[in-house]
Amino acid sequence: MSTEQILGLITGLAFGFLLQRGRVLRYDKQVGAMLFKDMAIFKFMLSAIVVGMFGILALNDLEIIKLSHKAMNVGAILVGGTLFGIGWAVMGFCPGTSVGAVGEGRWHAIFGVIGMIVGAGIYAEMYPFFKSTVLSWADFGKIGLPEALGINHWVIAVIFAIITLLMFRWFEKKGI
């Protein structure tokens, strides 16, 4: 096993542990999130995004890592986001929480994991078709929000963090 694989395994196990400790693997939390009645999952995700964003930007600025954007492709985002949403609504788990739920012993979530594996295989087999159709719709190339807006990435990170904190405060006031 390479160092990257070992670090990936450690990071994945830590993330799974945090998912479990944050109780976001629970079906009632998933349904509550979909109904906008329980914001625990959104708080968890937004917290992870803010911490990850600041960490990745700092590592990038220190030239420890190099960011490599994926292509901004509207067709792929629309189709992928729709499939993600349908899967979450049908299973009651998103991809990460379905794997975590299986790890917790909730064997019904294995159908979501199997669905992800089968879906990835279908995508791989149909990639040439997708490349000439969905993946060619409104392809803006490898661009990020800072490049599109022409501002420093830290401005976006700080604004996002402030908005996230304000949302957390609003969630707490509403009791969700």
Automatic annotation (TrEMBL):
Report TM segments. Answer: 40-59, 71-90, 110-130, 151-171
Pfam families, per this entry?
A: Sulf_transp
Q: Does the keyword Transmembrane helix apply?
A: yes
Which keywords does the record carry?
Membrane, Transmembrane, Transmembrane helix
Q: Which domain of life is it from?
A: Bacteria
- Name this protein carries in UniProt: Uncharacterized protein
